[in-house]
Amino acid sequence: MSRFKENQSGGRSVRLLRVGESVRHALSQILMRGDVQDDDLIKTPVTVTEVKVSPDLRNATVYFLPLGGEKKDVIKAALKRNSAYIRGQLAKAVHMKYLPALRFELDPSFDEAGKVNDLLASAHVRQDISSAPKANDGDEEE
User: Fold this and answer.
1) In whole angstroms, what is the distance from residue 19 CA to residue 97 CA?
2) In CATH, what class is 14-107?
3) Which of 38, 63, 104, 118 has CB 3.0 to 4.6 Å from 79, enough for a Cys bridge?
C-alpha cells in the first residue's frame, strides 16, 4: 500500500497541481527568455504543456512539445543535456524547500487528439453519424 494517498476523487491533490503549475510556468519563462545557451533550444520554441510532480515533491515529469512538432528527439536530448542548468534557474524562480528532479517527456496528448480527429473524420464514422436517428426534444405536437 502506498504511503502517499491521492485525494478522494482519485485525482492529484490541489497542492501537487499547484506546485506543478508553478514549475510549468517558471520553465516556460526560462525557455521563452532563452536563458539556456543551447543552439537546439534557441532555434526551436518549446511549449511546456504539463508538469506532473510526485507526491513527495522530489521528482517531476515535464511534458513538452517543440513548436511545429519537428525535431522532437533533438529537443528532448537538449533538454536532458541542460537539465542541471534548467533546474538551477528554476530554483531561482520557484521557492521550494526541495526542488524536484526533472525528467523530460514528449507530450503524447496532441498525437492522441490527432488520432481521434482522424477517426471522427473517417468515412465509416461519418456514415454512422449521418444515419443516426435524430433526438426527439419533445417539441413535436402529438
Assistant:
1) 12
2) alpha beta
3) 104
What's the pLDDT at 113? 72
Q: 113 Cβ partners below 8 Å, 6+ apart?
A: none
Query: For the segment 17-34, what is each residue's pLDDT rounded down to a tens digit?
Result: 999 999 999 999 998 888
Percent of the chain whose predicted confidence (pLDDT) is above 90: 42
Q: Domain map of the chain by residue range? A: 14-107
Task: Quote the cell numbers at residue 82.
Answer: 541542460
> What gap in Å lies between CA 58 and CA 52, rounded to an integer?
11
Strands 59-66 and 46-53: antiparallel
What's the mean per-residue pLDDT of the chain? Answer: 82
Helix (H, G, I), strand (E, B) or coil at 49: strand
CA atoms of 25 and 51, how far apart (whole Å)? 9
Q: What is the dihedral of CA 3, 6, 12, 13, to 10 degrees?
A: -90
